[in-house]
Design a protein that fits this description.
The protein is mainly α and 145 residues long. It has helices spanning 10-30, 36-65, 69-94, 98-111, 130-139. It has one domain (10-133). The radius of gyration is 16 Å and the shape is globular.
Length: 145
């Protein structure tokens, strides 16, 4: 088996995730009732926030190897909210507490207000199927890697 070589760096991945979150929040705010799209959006946003947290952890590993502890800690502190809000968002989504999801969406939107995404973006709808995936992961925790 050969090595997996990533052609994009961690920062690019994080930027793509942040833009996808902004797009999903915009779409979530347009929802007037709870349906399958609302569930997909909420599940996607919570998963994407936690994925952003993981990119932060992967980013600081090389800095720590070079003894840039202060830089690594500062970067972690700057992005710590992604883990906290991501966990809250995930729990509210699983419990289907839609008022809490709306409040957390507004909070995330405020944190990401500097992320610029064109109305004519080419990202599509990355949230499609996220609810089913979340339910599948919750029912089969052993298969998560």
């Amino acid at each position: 088996m050969s090595r997996i070589i990533r052609t994009e760096n961690i920062g690019t991945e994080r930027t793509r995730l942040l833009k996808a979150i902004v797009i999903a929040i915009r779409e979530l705010m347009r929802q007037t009732s709870v349906d399958s799209t609302t569930k997909d959006l909420a599940a996607f946003i919570s998963g994407a926030l936690l994925a952003v947290h993981h990119t932060v952890e992967r980013s600081v590993i090389p800095w720590e190897k070079r003894d840039y502890w202060v830089k690594a800690d500062k970067f972690r502190m700057e992005w710590a909210w992604t883990k906290e809000i991501g966990d809250q968002f995930l729990q509210a989504t699983i419990d289907q507490e839609w008022p809490t999801v709306a409040l957390l969406s507004a909070e995330v939107g405020k944190k990401l207000q500097k992320v610029v995404v064109s109305d004519r973006h080419r990202m599509g709808k990355p949230w499609v199927g996220a609810w089913d995936l979340l339910l599948q992961e919750r029912s089969n925790p052993d298969q998560n890697s």
